Amino acid sequence: MQMDATGSVTPKVTGSKQRLLLADDHEMILEVFAMFLANASSFDVVTARTFEEAAARMQKDGPFDITLLDWNMPGMHGIVGLKRAIQLSEGRPVGIITGEPSPKIVDEAVAAGVAGIILKSSGVRSLVNALNMIASGERYLPFDLLVRRNDPEANAGDDLTPKELLILREIAKGKRNKEICADLRLALPTVKMHVSSLCRKLGAKNRLHATVLARDLGLI
Questions:
Q1: What is the pLDDT of residue 39?
Q2: What is the 3-state secondary structure (H, E, C) of the chain?
Q3: What domains are there in the chain, each with its CATH number?
Q4: Tag placement on the chain: N or C end, fewer CB within 10 Å?
Q5: Ranges of the chain with pLDDT below 70
């Protein structure tokens, strides 16, 4: 860290690039985003794979110009980690990157002072646009999130039944329907019915999407 003439802390810089701390426990996502940002943006990227590692980097090498944290990585604990990161950032923006957050998560993050919510499904080019907006001092929220947040009917849905939750957890383990049938001693049509129902309730396009949504909602 450096001090300016007024005694304020200023972030370390590499040339004209802004320093970005990107933390995510998904190695492939982390590497793809970091590589793209390093080659096609004005950001100098530092990475971490857990919240503890990210916090340690913020304390040792920060504050960073922007900090972007995976909502569900180890040690993050959702809103708890976000608030801690905001404290460590010393007034600089902190955003989160996630799958499909629930309206409750969005509301909590916004209330805590999040600088932006970036969806992992948005792609690397949208990531750069979002970071540029955050860097300019604006708050970034994808349009789809704003629509769902302001439309209670769009979020209305039944809770998952205990059986659906059980099957969802089996899906998250990578099991196919036939494996779930054997392990839970259920008929194949019954499993298919429950899979279709839980996907509908979660608003998921497929089994993988259901797993991502369930993880963001803390169901698995």
A1: 82
A2: CEECCCCCEECCCECCEEEEEEECCCHHHHHHHHHHHHHHCCEEEEEECCHHHHHHHHHHHCCCCEEEEECCCCCCCCHHHHHHHHHHCCCCCEEEEECCCCHHHHHHHHHHCCCEEEEHHHCHHHHHHHHHHHHCCCCECCHHHHHHHHCHHHHCCCCCCHHHHHHHHHHHCCCCHHHHHHHHCCCHHHHHHHHHHHHHHHCCCCHHHHHHHHHHCCCC
A3: 2-150 (3.40.50.2300), 162-216 (1.10.10.10)
A4: N
A5: 1-15, 144, 147-158
